[in-house]
Write a structure and sequence with these properties.
heterodimer; A: 90 residues; alpha+beta; Eukaryotic RPB6 RNA polymerase subunit; four-stranded mixed β-sheet; 2 helices; 23% helix; 28% strand; globular; B: 929 residues; DNA Excision Repair, Uvrb, Chain A; 6 domains; six-stranded mixed β-sheet
C-alpha cells in the first residue's frame, strides 16, 4: 500500500493516540488487575499506529497505546489498546 | 455454594470422529437396507436393529437393557465400500491438499518459514486471540504454503488443486477419487498439522474422508405408526436406506469385477447420498426428495435456522408453570399486581416445603383437593400434587385428598395452587426491552382474562384489542426474591432508555386529572366523596365555604395523592409556549407549581403524570423511591377515574362540528390555494417561474406547490381550531396529551391535505397522470393528490384513491421497519449478550476481556440518571434556593452556553420523537392467525 502523506492524528475527528512505555503499560495493567490479553486491541496496520511509528519508531505487537477521546457522557475518556499483528485477510 | 453439583464441565472439545472410534462406539454394524420384517419386527443388523435403542414402550434395549426414556439410544455404523468425502469438511480438505506436497505429504514451507508461523501462533496466544483469529491464522499459513509450486523438502512439482462444488477434487483438471484424496491426507505428518490449525492428538486429516458412517440411534429418528397401522419412517432413516442400498450395490459390483465405469458411477451415487444425508441443501446438487416431492430434512436441516435445534430447542424452550390468555384493564389493581383467573390459578402451582410452622395450613389445603369449590364466593387454594420425601409424586384427587392430607409429613413438598401475593413473571411479546417481562404479585379473580393497571400498558406496549400475554410462576425462594428486588413493576418506573418514566398514566387517566385540576373547579361534598371513594385517604382537607355550602377544589383533591413536602415547577402539556411566560397568572392554567405537597396553580396533564413525560412521576420516583411512586400511581389511577366519572366525558363526530361560515371560509381559502398552485403551474409552463438556487425548474415548482398546499392545510386547521374550544372533548384529549393531536382534529374538521409517497406529490399510476380522471401532464393540486375535503365532509372518489395510496405507504413502511429492526436487534443482542458489568466498574465479556474500562464511560446507571445526566443541577438549586433558583439557573445557563454546543431549555426535556403516524390497527388479535 502506498503510504499517504495525510497525518490522520492531526485530524479533528481522530482522538489523541500515544504510545505507552513498558513501565506505564505495566501500571495500567496493575490498575485494572488484568493481563495484556484482556485489553481491547488495535491492529499494527491501523492508520494511527502507522503514523505513530513514524514518530516513535517501530511499534511491535504487545505494546500498549493510550487513546484520549471525547465522550458524550464523560466529556473525556481514556482507553488503552493493545497492539496486535496486522490484519489477516480471510 | 455449588449445591447438588457433583461434577463440573471443565471444557468441551469438538473434533472429527475416526473410523476406529465410529466402529468402537457402534452397537451394531448395519448391513441391510430393510427395516422391519413381514411380522413387523425389526431386522437384526438393519436400520431399526433393537441394539440401537428402544422407541416402543414396554420393550427393552438389547444393548443396555433399559426401557424407553431410560435408554439414551446407541450408535451403529455402516462400513462404506469405498471412501467418500464429508461435505461439511471439503473446504478444510481443499486447504490441506493445496498446502501439502502430493508425494511426501509435508507442508509446502521451508523450516524457517514454518518457524516464523509458529512464532505468530505464540504471539497470538500471549496477546489473546479469539477463535476467528486462530482460524484466520491457519488460513493464512495454508495460503502462504500453497503459493509454493515445488516442494521445498522433496523437490516435487505441485499440481493445481481445484474443487468442483460440492465434492469433486481435481488436480490440473484430472479427477482425484476420494480414495486418492484420503491417501494424500494420510501422508501429512503429525508435526505439520498444528500450523494448519489441526491438533494431531485429536484429529487426523484422513478422517475427513469417510470410510465408516455413524448411524444415529433410533431415538434420534423414531418411526411413527399412523392411525391406519402403516409405519412411516423418519427422513434420516430414508436417507440411510439409500446409502445402504447403493453401498451394497457398489460392493457387489466391485467384488464381481464390474467395468470401471459402472463402479465409478455407483461410487459417485454413494457420494451423493452421503452428501445429502449430511446436508440436503448443498448447492450444486439437487436435493433428495421424499416420494411426495417434499425435500428431505437431513442432519444440517435439523440444526440450522430459526426452526433448527439451536434456535428453537436450545436457546428457547417450551416451559411448564406458564399460562397465556387475553388481557384486559382493571384500574382497581395496583401497578404491581396482575389479575389471574381462577381456572389458571388452579393449574399453576407453587411448591411449598412442609415444615413444623406450616404443616397445619398445608394439611387443610391438601384436604380441599385439586378443585375446591368457592368458599362464601371466595377463592381458596387447593393442591394438585404432593411430593414425598423419597421423591414420589402423588396426584391429589377429590377421592384421595383426605388420605394424603393425613399422611402429610415434614419434608414433603406440596404443590399448591396459585394464590394472592404469589410472585409471577408477566410478559408480552415481542420482548424488546427488559420492561417486557416484569414481576407482578398475583390477585386471583373471577372471569377469564389476565388483568392489570393501565399504567403498565406502555412498557409492555399492550392494548386490549385482543392482545394476549404470558405468565410464568416462579418455583423457588431465590427466584422469587430476585424477581421482587430486580423485576418488580415499581422498580421499572424509570426506564434505562432515557432516564424518565415508562410507566405512567395514559388516555382517560390524563383526561381525568385534567378535568379535576384545569382552572381549579369546585366540587360539593357528594362529588368530592364520589371522586375520593377509591382513593386511600384518612380525612378530607379543609373545605371552602361559599354561601354556607362546603366545596373542595380540584387542586385540593389532587394534592391529597402527592407525597408530603413535594415541590416542583414546570409547564404543562397545554402550555402554548408564549413569548413571555405569565407564570402563575397563566391564562391557560398551564404553569404547574407545587409547594409543600400542595398543587398551587396549573393543570395536571400528560406532562405531569403521563408515561414517558410525567414530571411529577419522575421526581417522586427519584426523590421518594419506588414505593411512593407506586402508591402515587395507584392513587392517581383511582382519582382520575373518580374525577372523569363525576363530570362525565364523551366524544363523537359532533365534536368536530364547525359553523357554516367557518366551513365556507375554509373552502374559500382552499380554492385560493388551488388557484395559486395553478398559477405556479402556468408560470412554469410559460417559463416565468423563478428558479430556486440549487434546484431544477421542476423541483422549484414542486417545492412551491408543496409549500402552498402545506400552509393551506395548516390554515384550514387553524380556522377550524378557532371554533374548537377547551370545552370540546376532542380538544381536551388532544391538548392534555391523553389521545390524538390537533393535527388529527384539523384533518377531521378542516382539510386532510396533500397526500405523499416518498415525500413527493403523487405522480405514478397512468402515463403522465395519476388517474384517468385528469388530463395528461396535469400538475394541478387535485391531479397530484391534494385532498381538499375533511374526514368529516367525506372524500371524492379520486381523493379517496389518493388517500389510500398515501395510507398504503405508511403500512408498507411499518411492515418493513419492524422486520428490519427485528433482525438488527437480533444481531445486536447476539453480539452483546455475554457482556457483564463487573464489580470494578468495567464491562467485560465471558472471556473476561475488557470491553469498556468504565460502564458508559461515566459509570452512571441510566435508570438513575436524570435524562442521561448523573445529577440534576437545576433540581438541587431549586431545593437549596427555593423559588430564586430559577433566575439563578437561567443566569448560569447563559454562562454555560458559551462553552456548550447544546443549549437546553430549562423547562423542556428532550421529548420522545413521536412520529405522527396513522393507526391502521386491524386489532391486535387479528394478526394472530
Amino acid at each position: 500500500m502506498v503510504e499517504s502523506d495525510l497525518h490522520v492524528l492531526e485530524h479533528d475527528l481522530v482522538p489523541e493516540h500515544t504510545l505507552l512505555s513498558e513501565q506505564e503499560a505495566e501500571k495500567v495493567l496493575a490498575k485494572f488487575k488484568i493481563t495484556k490479553d484482556q485489553l481491547p486491541k488495535i491492529r499494527k496496520d491501523d492508520a494511527c499506529i502507522r503514523i505513530l511509528e513514524r514518530i516513535e519508531g517501530p511499534i511491535n505487537p504487545g505494546r500498549v497505546i493510550q487513546i484520549r477521546r471525547k465522550s458524550d457522557t464523560a466529556e473525556e475518556f481514556i482507553v488503552y489498546r493493545l497492539v496486535i499483528s496486522k490484519e489477516l485477510k480471510g | 455454594m455449588m449445591r447438588g453439583v457433583s461434577k463440573r464441565i471443565g471444557s468441551i472439545k469438538f473434533s472429527a470422529l475416526s473410523p476406529d472410534e465410529i466402529r468402537k462406539m457402534s452397537a451394531t454394524k448395519v448391513i441391510t437396507a430393510d427395516t422391519y420384517d413381514d411380522d413387523g419386527f425389526p431386522i437384526d443388523m438393519g436400520l431399526m436393529d433393537p441394539h440401537l435403542g428402544v422407541i416402543e414402550p414396554g420393550l427393552r434395549c438389547k444393548t443396555c437393557g433399559n426401557k424407553v426414556d431410560e435408554c439414551p439410544g446407541h450408535f451403529g455404523h455402516i462400513d462404506l465400500a469405498m471412501p467418500v468425502i464429508h461435505v461439511g469438511l471439503v473446504k478444510e480438505i481443499k486447504k490441506l491438499l493445496q498446502s501439502t506436497c502430493k508425494t511426501c505429504g509435508k507442508l509446502l514451507m521451508t523450516k524457517e518459514e514454518a518457524q516464523r508461523k509458529a512464532q505468530e501462533w505464540e504471539l497470538m496466544d500471549d496477546l489473546g486471540g479469539d477463535a476467528i483469529d486462530y482460524r484466520l491464522l491457519a488460513k493464512g499459513t495454508a495460503k502462504d504454503a500453497s503459493k509454493n509450486t515445488t516442494c521445498p523438502h522433496c523437490g516435487q512439482e505441485q499440481g493445481k488443486i481445484t474443487l468442483d462444488k460440492p465434492t469433486t477434487f481435481r488436480e490440473d483438471g484430472h479427477k482425484l477419487t476420494p480414495k486418492e484424496v484420503r491417501e494424500r491426507l494420510e501422508r501429512i505428518p503429525d508435526e505439520d498439522l498444528p500450523p494448519l490449525g489441526i491438533d494431531p492428538n485429536s484429529c487426523r486429516p484422513e478422517w475427513m474422508v469417510l470410510t465408516a458412517l455413524a448411524v444415529p440411534p433410533v431415538t434420534v429418528r423414531p418411526s411413527i405408526t399412523l392411525e391406519s397401522g402403516d409405519r412411516s419412517e423418519d427422513d434420516l432413516t430414508h436417507k440411510l436406506v439409500d446409502v445402504l442400498r447403493i453401498n451394497q450395490r457398489l460392493r457387489e459390483n466391485r467384488d464381481a469385477g464390474a467395468p470401471q465405469l459402472i463402479v465409478e458411477d455407483l461410487w459417485e451415487l454413494l457420494q451423493y447420498h452421503v452428501t445429502t444425508y449430511f446436508d440436503n441443501q448443498t448447492s450444486g446438487i439437487p436435493p433428495a426428495r421424499h416420494r411426495s416431492g417434499r425435500p428431505l430434512k437431513t442432519l444440517v436441516q435439523r440444526l440450522k435456522g430459526k426452526e433448527g435445534r439451536f434456535r428453537s430447542n436450545l436457546s428457547g424452550k417450551r416451559v411448564n408453570f406458564s399460562a397465556r390468555t387475553v388481557i384486559s384493564p382493571d384500574p382497581s389493581l395496583s401497578i404491581n399486581e396482575v389479575g389471574v383467573p381462577y381456572e389458571a390459578a388452579r393449574e399453576l402451582t407453587v411448591p411449598v416445603h412442609v415444615t413444623k410452622a406450616n404443616i397445619d395450613v398445608l394439611k387443610a389445603m391438601v384436604k380441599r383437593g385439586s378443585s375446591p369449590a368457592l368458599e362464601d364466593g371466595r377463592y381458596t387454594p387447593g393442591v394438585n400434587y404432593v411430593i414425598r420425601s423419597d421423591g414420589r409424586r402423588m396426584k391429589v384427587t377429590d377421592r384421595n385428598a383426605e388420605m394424603i392430607a393425613d399422611g402429610l409429613e415434614i419434608g414433603y413438598v406440596v404443590e399448591r395452587h396459585l394464590m394472592d401475593k404469589d410472585v409471577v413473571l408477566f410478559n408480552r411479546q415481542p420482548s424488546l426491552h427488559r420492561m417486557s417481562m416484569m414481576a407482578h404479585t398475583v390477585r386471583v379473580m373471577p372471569w377469564k382474562t389476565f388483568r392489570f393497571n393501565l399504567c403498565v400498558c406502555p412498557p409492555y406496549n399492550a392494548d386490549f384489542d385482543g392482545d394476549e400475554m404470558n405468565l410464568h410462576v416462579l418455583q423457588s425462594d431465590e427466584a422469587r426474591a430476585e424477581a421482587m428486588i430486580l423485576m418488580r413493576v415499581q422498580e421499572h418506573i424509570l426506564s434505562p432508555r432515557f432516564g424518565g418514566p415508562v410507566i405512567g398514566a395514559i388516555h382517560d387517566h390524563i383526561t381525568g386529572t385534567f378535568l379535576l385540576t384545569h382552572q381549579d373547579p369546585k366540587f360539593d361534598k357528594q362529588e368530592t366523596l364520589s371522586i375520593l371513594s377509591k382513593v386511600k385517604h384518612d380525612h378530607l382537607p379543609e373545605p371552602l365555604v361559599v354561601d354556607g355550602k362546603e366545596y373542595w377544589t380540584g387542586h385540593q383533591l389532587f394534592s391529597m395523592v402527592l407525597p408530603e413536602g413535594f415541590h416542583t415547577t414546570f409547564k404543562a402539556s397545554i402550555c402554548r409556549n408564549c413569548a413571555v411566560c405569565k407564570k402563575e397568572e397563566c391564562d391557560l392554567d398551564a404553569y404547574v407549581k407545587i409547594r409543600e405537597g400542595k398543587l398551587i396553580t396549573g393543570t395536571i396533564d400528560e406532562k405531569a403524570i403521563g408515561s414517558f413525560k410525567g414530571k411529577i412521576l419522575d421526581k417522586i420516583t427519584r426523590d421518594y423511591g419506588a414505593d411512593s411512586a407506586r402508591e402515587f400511581l395507584d392513587n392517581v389511577t383511582k382519582l382520575a377515574i373518580g374525577a372523569i366519572m363525576v363530570r362525565g366525558f364523551t366524544t363523537g363526530i359532533d365534536d368536530e362540528d364547525i359553523p357554516e361560515e367557518a366551513t365556507h371560509q375554509i373552502n374559500e381559502m382552499l380554492k385560493d390555494s388551488v388557484r395559486k398552485v395553478s398559477e405556479y403551474v402556468q408560470a412554469y409552463r410559460d417559463g416565468t417561474l423563478e428558479q430556486r438556487p440549487g434546484r431544477s425548474l421542476e423541483e422549484t415548482l414542486e417545492v412551491e406547490v408543496m409549500k402552498t398546499l402545506g400552509s393551506a392545510r395548516d390554515e384550514a386547521g387553524q380556522i377550524a381550531g378557532r371554533h374548537l374550544g377547551m370545552e370540546n372533548s376532542a380538544v381536551i384529549m388532544a391538548r392534555s396529551g391523553a389521545r390524538g393531536s390537533m393535527l388529527n382534529l384539523s384533518q377531521m374538521a378542516g382539510c386532510i391535505g396533500q397526500q405523499a409517497v416518498r415525500g413527493e406529490r403523487l405522480s405514478r399510476g397512468y402515463w403522465n397522470r395519476t388517474l384517468p380522471h385528469f388530463k395528461k401532464g396535469d400538475l394541478g393540486a387535485q391531479a397530484k393528490g391534494f385532498v381538499q375535503n375533511s374526514y368529516k365532509s367525506g372524500l371524492t372518489p379520486t381523493e379517496f384513491f389518493f388517500h389510500s395510496m398515501g395510507g398504503r405507504e405508511g403500512l408498507v413502511d411499518t411492515a418493513v421497519r419492524t422486520s428490519r429492526s427485528g433482525y438488527m436487534q437480533r444481531r445486536l443482542i447476539n453480539a452483546l449478550e455475554d457482556l457483564k458489568l463487573k464489580q470494578d466498574g468495567t464491562v467485560r465479556n465471558t472471556a473476561d476481556m475488557i470491553v469498556q474500562l468504565q460502564y458508559g464511560e461515566d459509570g452512571v446507571d441510566p435508570c438513575r440518571s436524570v435524562q442521561g445526566d448523573a445529577v440534576d443541577i437545576d433540581d438541587i438549586l431549586a431545593e437549596v434556593l427555593g423559588d430564586d433558583a430559577e433566575a439563578l439557573a437561567r443566569l448560569e445557563e447563559k454562562k454555560v452556553a458559551g462553552y456548550a454546543t447544546i443549549e437546553k431549555d430549562l423547562m423542556e426535556t428532550i421529548e420522545e420523537e413521536e412520529v405522527e403516524e396513522p393507526e391502521y390497527d386491524a386489532g391486535g388479535g387479528g394478526g394472530e392467525d
